[in-house]
Design a protein that fits this description.
mainly alpha
Length: about 210
């Protein structure tokens, strides 16, 4: 849930502060590319392509690391990836605090971090916890509800994911609009580091 909140932060940073580009949510980013190609004002084909390319690079790296990391417990595997993500976000934070003219490097760094994490989370396959996309989570929440004749499996987890993303996006938007990019990026870095620290060293479920 901490990582899901960080995703909300990152998309608030990228969409509101980096030229209407998504760097965590690639569904939105593909749609933005379509808007930009159509000539809609305020959208960038280049920025969106940089984001997509960096995200896919991160996902490819995550896939290549699977053979090595599969020999480790899942918590250890995820912790190592989150440490790399935190480093990438820390570099982004330093860049944001030192220059106002680094839009594309910031897009690339944050999208690379999100691709690496998303590729890893997909391999770990925790039900209803993708950390970056809520479409299937919301679909499951509705289609498995008692209103639809279902039994509400994992309803608490699904609702928590939605609220975590909302909280991250809200906090990120407030910070971007009032203090710039550096502080929300720092918060994203700290959130990822906290998530890494919260992972158990060993557990029976591993």
């Amino acid at each position: 849930m901490t990582l899901t909140a960080v995703s909300g932060l990152i998309d608030a940073i990228s969409y509101l502060g980096l030229g209407h580009v998504f760097t965590a949510n690639m569904t939105g980013n593909v749609v933005v590319i379509g808007f930009a190609i159509a000539g809609a004002p305020g959208f960038s084909v280049l920025g969106s392509l940089v984001s997509l390319a960096a995200f896919l690079t991160g996902a490819v790296i995550a896939g290549r690391l699977e053979d090595v990391m599969r020999r480790r417990p899942p918590s250890s595997w995820l912790r190592h990836i989150l440490c790399v993500e935190a480093v990438l976000l820390a570099i982004s934070t330093a860049v944001a605090f030192t220059t106002d003219h680094a839009m594309h490097p910031l897009i690339a760094l944050t999208a690379l971090a999100m691709g690496l994490r998303n590729g890893t989370v997909r391999k770990l396959a925790v039900p209803d916890v993708t950390t970056t996309v809520l479409t299937l989570t919301l679909t499951g929440l509705a289609s498995d509800s008692t209103w639809a004749g279902g039994t509400n499996p994992r309803a608490g987890r699904r609702l928590a994911s939605v609220l975590a993303m909302l909280a991250g996006a809200l906090g990120g938007a407030v910070l971007v609009l009032h203090v710039g990019l550096g502080w929300p990026l720092l918060l994203s870095t700290l959130g990822t580091a906290v998530a890494a620290l919260l992972l158990p060293r060993r557990s029976s479920s591993d």
